Here is the input.
Amino acid sequence: MLVIKDLAVKFPSRFGDVTAIEDVDMTIAPGEIHGLVGESGAGKSTVGAAVIGLLPTPGYVAGGELTLGDTDLRALSREEAHRLRGDRISMIFQDPQTSLNPLMTVEDQLVETIQAHSDVGYEAAHKRAVDLLEEIGIENASARIKSYPHQFSGGMRQRVVIALALCTDPEVIIADEPTTALDVAVQSQVLELIRRLADTRGIAFMLITHDIGVIAQVADRVTVMRHGKVMESGETRQVLGAPEHPYTRALMAAVPPLDRRIERFAIPEPEAGGAGAGEAAERWLLEGVGGAATGLRVLDLSVQFAGTRTSLFKKPEPFTALHDISFEVRPGSIMGVVGESGSGKSTLAKVLTGLVSPASGQMHLGDAPLPGAKQRGRGHPSRQLIQMVFQDPYSSLNSRHRIGAILAEPLWLYGLVQEAGARRELAAQMLDLVGLPADAIDKYPHQFSGGQRQRIAVARALLARPRFLICDEPTSALDVSIQAEILNLLKDLQANFGLTILFITHNLTVVRQMADDMIVLRRGRIEEAGSTEAVFEAPQAEYTQKLLSLTPVMPREWQIAG
Amino acid sequence: MIAFLKRSEGLWLFVRSPAAIVAAVVAVLIIFGAAFAPLLSPVNPYDLSSFSLFDGLIPPLWQEGGNAKFLLGTDDQGRDMISSILYGARLSLIIGLAAMVIATVLGVGLGLAAGYYGGRFDAFVMRIADVQLALPAILTALLIDGIARGVLPADMQGDLRIAVLTIAIALSLWVNFARTARASTFVQMNKEYVQAAIMMGQRPARVMFVHILPNILGPLLVIMTVDLASAILLEATLSFLGIGLPPDSPSLGTLIQIGMQFLFSGEWWILWIPTLFLVALVVSINILGDFLRDVFNPRLR
Here is the structure.
């Protein structure tokens, strides 16, 4: 039984100690999965790190109690704490790519860990390692144990990480975002495995995640954190089904449902308004629109990349990222593109924006043919008409430029506004339109939060007066409440300016809310295409059905009307 | 401004680092002294009429036989040591700075372009860099020097010595800049802001210099300081070997070479004072470079 009482963690800085978490109470019984949920900066990972004694320097536990069984974790010496880690508490990290040593076989890593913690010979350790791999569902374990980590797929690798955590028969496992880097199908398998280990071995899990769907699927109890404090705690059914704290309620309302479409998302404590006034910018945009919206047609599009060279003399086999894709985006509609990692959805965006050349196929923007990257000159009109909002707002804005310079760039580049003062004026108006204060114009990107940065990225795209907007996972790096804000903003802009949008995402619930039509991509091929409602209500392809059934959802009665 | 300085991480680290403060004070004093050498030094060592052989080999003031007119003594020609050193440091710093600037422009330009275009252009530039690395700096300098001697008319050679020396040093230093700029550019090329700029149809030169360059300045600044020290040392080495500046307009290296003749004759100051001065200059610049590296690399903190 892990008991956390009044835990406080502080980080000394040059301006005095910063309190990362305080007054955190939590009790995890054997066999219980305790979900710890919160948005970024809530301090949930800090709780896990404090329990296992791996706080990043110079952080320290400033107060409270941490007890595991009858052991006081705070009273342990360095040496004892080190032995306890792994022996009684283990940890599973987010990224299975980096938590295994790529130069050691799985067997070496497992045997090493087992022998480090118990005095057994190689034979016994090896047998235990094979048994463990079998237990966590790796087939043909006695042969596969000789493999290196890269020879396993992402989900299998995360299973190996779990096996490694199990080596020493721990009482508590802290799982920090264990499924965030995984696709939905693999995620659900890993969650099932965690559930089974809790039930059969009686391990207490602390499951740290930002995904409420994951919590709803496996956790017995849940603690909601915000700004380093516990907001609400209790049985999952209780907390998620009938939340008492306003923050929990707001958080639940911001989660997009999978089984129906809602018009707008509820926003807990808006960071910035929806689409704001910015009338001049609005007029300017409408004036550029002049006439009907622009659609996009793609016919038999294929993309190949150079493959890995296997021989010095043979040309490497090309790797085909997209196979003969054909689809049409109706003018003024939102087309959703869904797929797991490696499905080619980002490649599609790169071809359309002219960063990657297609191997064959045709593209038409409106009635004009759209040449591939190599034939598309820098001055081609589509460079202006197609704009893109990228996934990561932390890298899509140049951190050394002021917001004003970033926003004025498209106006200057496309010769839309000649005079520098007028460009600045329009940029300020556009900031207003996307819901940011006007004084943002002289700041640098790092002075804004992720959601605000994404608004700036949207403003930059709009200032090119585009007719076609590509959004590549625009919200996957954002918290759920910020995601709701950005999606509302995109909906508003689309409705007001008749933009045509290609919305790329791995998140089915978001597509259902945003897209009019959708295509499902898998390994570079279209599995299913159709209107969003039709695909969700009656999916035809087996793959789509599988994706839909595996996406973690909250039971309907827990959902709060938006 | 004051609010900015209060928040500045670099300044905060600087105040807490005694080595950096001492190095900065030494470097600033030397650079200041060199820059205002004509105002500060008692005599002009390049003006033959301003010194006399009768004043030759006077020891520094604190030694027996010292003369209040020559605080650090004189050399065998009767030149005041302080004046020679200040004027010499001036030449050394001018050559070092100029060589560093040329190497930066050349190296950063080529490195950025190599990282941006990749492929064959990258391979071409980097092979040239490899060849350059295989040649010791002194060999490059000798080569340039030889070419200049052969090509330029004899009466111009004296005037162009400084230029020849600067180019020779710059050529042996640009590789550092090119390699660092190329590696940093590769990292930036995958960032979405660069993709966005390319996608919008911006000119390559604008993407490179307006978008990428400001984001890779940190490591380049560090190399600039470290290479400034190398350039000064390289100049001193070349002058010491006699292929640098002539004895009538001595740089620090030339002064050390002149001093070498008096190493065992009891007139220690002629060798040791310019040498210590050079060591102080180079070490302080290097410490500042190390400090800058720590500021720009949070992982080393």
